[in-house]
Amino acid sequence: MKVYHCNLEVSLEVIGGKWKGLVLYYLIDGPKRTSELKRLIPNITQKMLIQTLRELEANGLVSRKMFNQVPPKVEYSTTDLGQSLEPILRALCQWGDGYAAKTYAEGEVQILKVD
After folding, report:
1. Cα(74)–Cα(81) distance, rounded to whole angstroms?
2. Domain containing 56 — which CATH number?
């Protein structure tokens, strides 16, 4: 039995870490293949991307659809539960914009917007 001392612990266990939020953010706009996600998140390794997708799938936030074709095709998409994180992820993006504007000197950081 897991014991949490705060509801935030549950949230961070499910969506915390370096990559989960980014993967969810890109999947919210629609299904993506692994190669598309890798292109959108160039700093993630293939191994870490697959591990992150598996964890999100195990937690019910992402679904995996295999197509019966050659070569094999796999698409990932958010479940309804995963899609419910959209306003939270978008709010975090807005917060990040404001934080970067107030904290970093001009030219010190560049945010490449994909929206």
Report:
1. 20
2. 1.10.10.10
